[in-house]
Amino acid sequence: MKIQILGSGCPNCQKLEENTREAVKELGLKAEITHIYDIGKIIEMGVMMTPALTVDGKVCISGKVASVEEIKEVIKK
Questions:
Q1: CA 45 and chain centroid, separation
Q2: Contact predicate 24/31, CB 8 Å
């Protein structure tokens, strides 16, 4: 599973990454988590509002800091 956090590195983006890492840990999954900071690449992926989260290339959350529980639900789908 590949998970990407999309955002400039602002506090909200950092919190989404922290929550994502916690969600993966709580689910006991093995996932590659990366953070994309390049705004051009983020726009290429079709994201207009950050922070955003992708799972295996699909944008699942955009424009908000999702809670650990919300992220766990998205990952389980």
A1: 13
A2: yes
- Residues annotated as catalytic are 10, 13
* Band of residue 22 on the pLDDT scale cut at 50, 70, 90: very high
56: number of Cβ within 10 Å: 10
Domains and CATH numbers, the chain: 2-76 (3.40.30.10)
Whether the pTM exceeds 0.85: the reply is: yes
Q: Which long-range contacts (CB under 8 A, 24 or more apart) does 36-42 make?
A: 36/4, 36/5, 36/6, 36/7, 37/7, 37/8, 37/9, 39/8, 42/6, 42/7
